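Memo to structure team: turn this sequence into structure tokens by end of day. - J.P.
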Amino acid sequence: MVAYPNTPNEGSVVTIVLFHSACGLRPAVHTAADRLRATGHEVHVPDLYDGRTAPTVEEGMAIRDEIGNDELLRRAIVAAAPFSARGLVYAGLSLGGSLAQNLALGDENARGLLLLHGTSDIAEGAATDIPVQLHVADPDPFETEDWLNTWYLGMRKAGADVEIHRYRGAGHLYTDPELPDYDAEAAERTWAIAADFLGEL
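Reply from structure team:
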């Protein structure tokens, strides 16, 4: 049985849109959403792949490339739009983190940004004061040391309050129990820290 963190106070309940990784809307994404719901939050998990999933990151990236980054971003915007007036927390796994970051930095009502396994480029002149939390493997072939340093400085320049949590020895998508990257200890630590982050918003 999984022990979930305590339910937050009513004032700290937030609306979250959680975007899936390049592997699609796999069971692990629903499990992650359920964990966050168990702490009292409202969580939405859009399916940007229209039901398609992939058993490996490489196969998932092929689906991503087939759909195209611009179309995926459009789908993410459409999925988040009905909730954005509430002051969303944008969250995402790997590719979903990249999409979540882009949407959060373009939404003046955003309350926070929770990134797992992935980040994105930061547009010149981006400005935000939202809290940002990133969880990433150490090392991660998709999120290298040099890139993370550049990303952190860029987010700080934009005005974000940034935390980075790194997990030595974990694989890229270490929160998905059905993938080879899975690291149970790192996953549990990630969700516990993320729950505290969301509870403080």
